[in-house]
Design goal:
Blueprint (H helix, E strand, L loop, with lengths): L15 E8 L7 H16 L13 E5 L7 H4 L15 E3 L2 E5 L6 H4 L4 H13 L6 E7 L6 H9 L4 E6 L3 H16 L4 E12 L5 E2 L6 H9 L3 E7 L1 H9 L3 H4 L4 H22 L9
Helix pairs in contact: 1-10, 4-5, 6-7
The structure holds adenosine-5'-diphosphate (ADP) and magnesium ion.
Length: 284
Amino acid sequence: MQPPGSPPQKIALPNIHNVIAVASGKGGVGKSTVAANLALALARTITPQPSSGKEGIGRVGLLDADIYGPSVPIMMGVRDVVDQRTTPFPLERYGLKLMSMGFLVPPVQAVIWRGPMVHRALVQFLTDINWGPLDYLVIDLPPGTGDAQLTLTQTAPLSGAIIVTTPQDVALIDARKGLEMFRQVRVPVLGIVENMSYFQGEDGTRVHLFGHGGGQKLAAEAGVPFLGEIPIDPRVSECGDQGEPIVHRYPESGVAKAYQALAAMVIEQLRRTDQGPELPEVQL
Ligand SMILES: Nc1ncnc2c1ncn2[C@@H]1O[C@H](COP(=O)(O)OP(=O)(O)O)[C@@H](O)[C@H]1O
Ligand SMILES: [Mg+2]
């Protein structure tokens, strides 16, 4: 038994080289979309032959830790709850290994779960599921910075965290809270990614619908890397709804290229944090 008030024990995952948390201060900024497409982009950096269908096969996992709002099932085209007796987990889609509470129970059922049950389920997802050796496990954290998120970031052996924001001021305020949470639990922030940054017209002109430069400014302020901008593209949500993320469906699109650049930045930051010295303290 642990004494009350002590932080939860960290799980060891020796078979997984890098565990990356994707977080946001609030919902709706595209955190799940970023987690899924980043996972696919990372897989493509491992085996980069386009459209071989075997990009980085089995070397990247995506764990949906957003128990109350799982979106991995829909984004990855797993429409129905799967039969646990006959289905081995993790599931595999597009070369990724996947786990989500949404595979096990319809979302309405999980809503009544309390914190400790949610936590136990996630610990099981990390420890009881045979992920096999992985280069990267991307975890889609629940939105926000409450107790559940804090416990999770203390339990999972995170190599680093990515914070997703949009250019709007309100989203940036919430992103600051995310930075503070990871500082408290001493998880290195790999950087900030700004989603829905701009719309690019066919002639190449960029329209910044929600302002410009917010994510970059926040990163500079906090002394963490700015990992890049993901444009707005209606195909992102179409692909999400149809169960095939844009990086897989349209690997030549501007959005997919932005994700490949993001993956390269993330790999670079992981390499740096691995080598130490420690990232500078986040200044807020
Ligand atoms: N770059 C983008 N361009 C267009 N739509 C996007 C983009 N990123 C996310 N979306 C859409 O925004 C909505 C919210 O995204 P989601 O990933 O579910 O957010 P969160 O996990 O932060 O709540 C989804 O419909 C998604 O398809
Ligand atoms: Mg989500």
